Amino acid sequence: NAGVMQNPRHLVRRRGQEARLRCSPMKGHSHVYWYRQLPEEGLKFMVYLQKENIIDESGMPKERFSAEFPKEGPSILRIQQVVRGDSAAYFCASSPTGIEGTGELFFGEGSRLTVL
Amino acid sequence: GDSVTQMEGPVTLSEEAFLTINCTYTATGYPSLFWYVQYPGEGLQLLLKATKADDKGSNKGFEATYRKETTSFHLEKGSVQVSDSAVYFCALRVSNELVFGKGTKLTVNP
């Protein structure tokens, strides 16, 4: 039973380019969460999605960031016109029932974005 | 807002030493509390949890007790092993998200 798969593991972009991070949840999980970890900081919640729906995006920056979780395929976190401050590790987590259930999230290994 | 504060790392111990990683929280009501662990090169995974006051979570020799009076959820292990070297995150659940502390890196030397 494969875990949460994130790719790419490492991504380098120049300022102004776009970054796309992909997350395939565990089999049978329809709830996906994205977190960001800045250097020397803890993980910060960004967005919570179910299939085809954004449930809570209260942690997403208002501009340049977007997320989707289509009916088919992985969840995508998209960052347009990246800036150096976007350099961070982005973690995806999934859950079969949502965090209101057991509270357990299953995390991927993260995607590390470096903006030059 | 709701938050978690955990002791600054890094923490370096010798094998078989006693471990305590302090965690305190600020929240309205009585949130569920968690410890997650991240081993090198891996994603975070749930270590243990407690859902109400005085509950004790335990797993792999680690324990933490939900203390309402001190708003704390300290992680302890009586005898650490080299394989326990990892980053440990304290967290609480608020609505649709987990709120994490900054993490404490533990290194256990043989």
Keywords:
heterodimer; A: 116 residues; mainly beta; seven-stranded mixed sheet; four-stranded antiparallel sheet; 0% helix; 48% strand; B: 110 residues; six-stranded mixed sheet; 12 strands; globular
What does this 3D model show about the protein?
The complex is a heterodimer of chains A (116) and B (110). With 116 residues, chain A is an all-beta fold. Chain A has no helices and eleven strands. In chain A, the strands form two sheets. In chain A, strands 2, 4, 5, 6, 9, 10 and 11 form a seven-stranded mixed beta sheet that branches. A four-stranded antiparallel beta sheet of chain A has the order 1-3-8-7, with no helix packed on it. Chain A starts with a strand and ends with a strand. The model of chain A has no long low-confidence stretch (mean pLDDT 92). Chain B is mostly beta strands. Chain B has no helices and twelve strands. In chain B, strands 2, 5, 6, 10, 11 and 12 form a six-stranded mixed beta sheet that branches. Chain B has a four-stranded antiparallel beta sheet with strand order 3-9-8-7, with no helix packed on it. In chain B, strand 10 and strand 11 form a beta hairpin. The mean pLDDT of chain B is 93. Chains A and B meet through strand 5 and strand 10 of A and strand 6 and strand 11 of B.
